[in-house]
Hints:
By secondary structure, the chain is of the alpha+beta class. 30% of the residues lie in helices and 28% in strands. The chain has a 5-stranded antiparallel sheet with strand order 2-1-3-4-5, covered by helices on one side. A hairpin with a 5-residue loop joins strand 3 and strand 4. Helix 1 (22-31) packs across helix 2 (63-77). The longest helix has 15 residues, at 63-77.
Amino acid sequence: MNLINIYNERTLEYIGSFEKTEKNIINFVASIPPYKNIRLVECSTDNLILTTIGNFLDYVPDQEWLRKILPRLIEKQTGNLPIEKVIIYNRYEEMR
């Protein structure tokens, strides 16, 4: 399973991981509370996917991908589409 690692953007502390799908990324970002700043990093390559300020996107290196997902993200953030639960793993516990 390809994973996305979640980090606190300010402290870079590992928070957890979830399966890398567009749907999971959109639902996770839409569900972030306004006081949390998050960094999402692809586990296998260590590439930065995005950073947030609350549930708003701050930095997204792949602007073409951003244009593709933005309409669905906005629909979830505005309540027009439901935010689905994303299963969060601790990848360090899974390795035991």
